[in-house]
């Protein structure tokens, strides 16, 4: 790893990055099991809104409007507040992952959905579906560019062993670096942004909805229900 850091260069990023998260396309009322009356649902929602603290407080409130709070939390804040082990974190700190294209985010998230959530639940052979939302987020940072080293440092793109990359993430987090760029493991033609500092992210905007559906050994991805946009072989992930 020492040889890697002695050669790595910075890449000055001022780009829109795609962030892909779980989300419902059709909203569900969380209070409909408490009463059959829609007016009771509205009252419960009003009470929750009045007592729930804001998730995002803008430094420039005259610019940011309340409706942006949900976009900010969903597209930016969540992974920094809910730590979990991942390719570049051992679970001791939060990491935000984005990509240069919707296609790359789809390959990456399809892998983690199929071989993570569905495998743990024993649902890989079932006809299951998940809905997702894609955001564009502005990224402005000087990031370490690890893309030239994926052949010389094979640990960077290992499909299942994260020990090498977690050691990199731990060092960068400890030293206060904002993050890095690396080749996508699931879509080699794309690349991923690994962000350790939320202050370099801004302006989250809704891009599109996606729906993933497993059928046999294929994941079908739809932008519109019933019309396949991408198909991904699970063995290729």
Automatic annotation (TrEMBL):
> What domain of life does the UniProt record list for this protein's source?
Bacteria
InterPro entries with a match to the protein in the record: RES_dom
**Can you give the residue ranges of the RES domain?**
79-207
> What is the protein's name according to its record?
RES family NAD+ phosphorylase
């Amino acid at each position: 790893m020492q040889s890697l850091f002695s050669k790595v260069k910075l890449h000055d990023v001022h780009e829109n990055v795609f962030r892909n998260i779980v989300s419902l396309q059709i909203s569900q009322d969380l209070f409909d099991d408490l009463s059959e009356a829609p007016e009771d649902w509205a009252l419960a929602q009003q009470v929750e809104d009045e007592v729930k603290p804001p998730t995002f407080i803008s430094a420039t409130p005259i610019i940011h409007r309340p409706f942006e709070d949900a976009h900010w939390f969903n597209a930016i804040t969540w992974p920094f507040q809910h730590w979990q082990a991942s390719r570049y974190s051992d679970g001791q700190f939060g990491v935000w992952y984005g990509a240069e294209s919707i296609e790359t985010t789809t390959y990456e998230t399809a892998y983690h959905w199929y071989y993570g959530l569905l495998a743990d639940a024993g649902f890989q052979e079932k006809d299951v579906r998940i809905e997702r939302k894609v955001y564009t987020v502005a990224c402005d940072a000087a990031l370490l560019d690890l893309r030239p080293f994926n052949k010389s440092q094979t640990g960077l793109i290992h499909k299942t062993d994260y020990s090498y990359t977690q050691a990199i993430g731990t060092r960068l987090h400890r030293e206060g670096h904002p993050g890095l760029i690396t080749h996508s493991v699931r879509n080699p033609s794309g690349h991923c942004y690994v962000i350790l500092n939320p202050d370099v992210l801004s302006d989250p905007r809704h891009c599109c909805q996606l729906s993933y559906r497993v059928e046999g050994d294929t994941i079908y991805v739809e932008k519109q229900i019933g019309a396949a946009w991408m198909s991904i072989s699970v063995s290729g992930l």
